[in-house]
Write a structure and sequence with these properties.
The complex is a heterodimer. By secondary structure, chain A is mainly alpha-helical. Chain A contains 11 helices and 2 strands. Chain A is globular. Chain A starts with a helix and ends in a 9-residue tail after the last helix. Chain B has a 6-stranded mixed sheet, with helices on both faces. By secondary structure, chain B is of the alpha/beta class. Chain B is built from 9 helices and 10 strands. Classes of the chains: A mainly alpha, B alpha/beta. The interface between A and B is medium-sized, with 19 and 23 residues.
Amino acid sequence: MNSIHMSLASISGIAGVKANDTFASWFKRMTWTLGLPLLGLLVFMFIWQAGAKRIDTSLGQFPGPVQVYEQTGALISEHVREREREAAFYERQEKRNAERVAKDPDYVPKVRSYTGKPTFFDQIVTSLVTVLAGFAIGALIAIPLGICIGLNGSLYALLNPVIQLFKPVSPLAWLPLVTMVVSAVYVSDDPLFAKSFLTSLFTVSLCCLWPTLINTAVGVSAISPDLQNVSKVLRLSWLAHVYRIVLPSSVPMIFTGLRLSLGIAWMVLIAAEMLAQNPGLGKFVWDEFQNGSSDSLGRIMVAVLVIGVIGFLLDRIMLLIQRAVSWDKNAITR
Amino acid sequence: MAVHLELSDVSIEFPTPKGAFRALDGVNLKIERGEFVSLIGHSGCGKSTVLNIIAGLHQASTGGVVLDGREVNEPGPERAVVFQNHSLLPWLSAYENVELAVRQVFKGRKSKAEMKAWIEHNLELVQMTHAMDKRPDEISGGMKQRVGIARALAMEPTVLLMDEPFGALDALTRAHLQDSLMEIQSSLNNTVIMITHDVDEAVLLSDRIVMMTNGPAATVGEILEVDLPRPRERIALADNPEYNHYRHHVLRFLYEKQRKVEPLVSHRAKGRVDDSAKARKQA
């Protein structure tokens, strides 16, 4: 009993409990912030385990938490092994080249890059890079355009039908068109980016720019008329008006849009990679599905969870940035 | 001496779905340099519209405003406005709010150090130096309005326009700010045009009170010269017969000559007619 109390006290020290806080109120707070979420996860695990046992597929039993845990370990060791192989390959190549140069000084050594299969973690990195690049392009288009639309009523009326038309389009509908356009337009002997990367990138951009565009436009057009009068009395130039008044006052709305956009971007990317066989987590899932070994379903489940965790983390990061940048500290940001 | 600020035959019409609405009709007013003029009238009579036309935020449909021989047709810092609900930029501190105005108005005319001194000087005038690094949401309503006044004063305006500057404040804070304003006015001697609902405020602060008739097509009803010696002291004036005479004059204008027809009363009267009509039908 005493030791439990001791350990609780040390946790409370970590959680930053004030000296005048009573134990009861601390306990209540911890229940809300830690206890209930953990309980929810536990209940989910239990239902998952119980349900998984009852589902038999042609690839064996549906993976439960234990199989997923095992497959996570397997994927990590696969990644480590692949890295070791890669290092060994380069070592061998270097050694061989050094020997040939020693024999024949005129020999120009050839350096070949390693062509092993990308591991699960390589696919995660590819997906992350693609989603962030696509999201950035979307935001770079959406924010300035949104500001212009929000400031100018006739521009809004002009573009609104187009926005409303394209906003609900699924990424899968864009994908064939984007693929064909990229293959036709991006012709180069020494491409800086892979075509598959560009296809995923533009599909993501096309789908994720709408929430930012619309929220920015709404935020900008909702600037209080009093602040606009201040700007007029001060005779701020157009640029100063945008920079000093419009942008800061619509920052909360812009970030609401950006968070929605990033969420959509991440969902769209996985679907696009799956359909187009472009490198990334979507391709990993599809490959495992096609592979059809007894481990496949477990590995897909690992990918599903990782996709969820990454999506959650991306949203949290955006939230942190929003809190740091936005002046409106009273806004409910969660 | 030439007229400092002149409104000649100012009328304004706003387009509505039912046709043009004439808010102001033939407003004439001459204001001298250093004068403190109040505009008083019932709500909806177009006081704010007059102020917005002088500020250049509205354009008169006919007639116009001439300030120091030049026609006013766009907003500018020489006609600084103190807005009713302070209109400070919520993401900037008190200092930065004033700085935005100073940087814009004195660009190229003052050095960085001079600007800093000027900003601090204006915040000192409204006694806000202690909270100049606070944001608007961290200070009280009265303090926000002080910063709003500091921002307007920092533009070194030819005419200071105040749109019900103390309307949203509680009575004690309002009295405090009125005293501050009188003090500032006695040293700077600005030309001030202030809109108010408050008869005491108008008599206490003004050199002249412009009373407006009810809209639509509102215009100047009467102009009252307030010839009380300055500095004025609110407690001493409370028993002053002259002060009460001025007060009485304005009150009579507002509640007898320009009595606003209360919609509540008219509704009740109408209801009674309906009831009697119904009763007759039933009979």
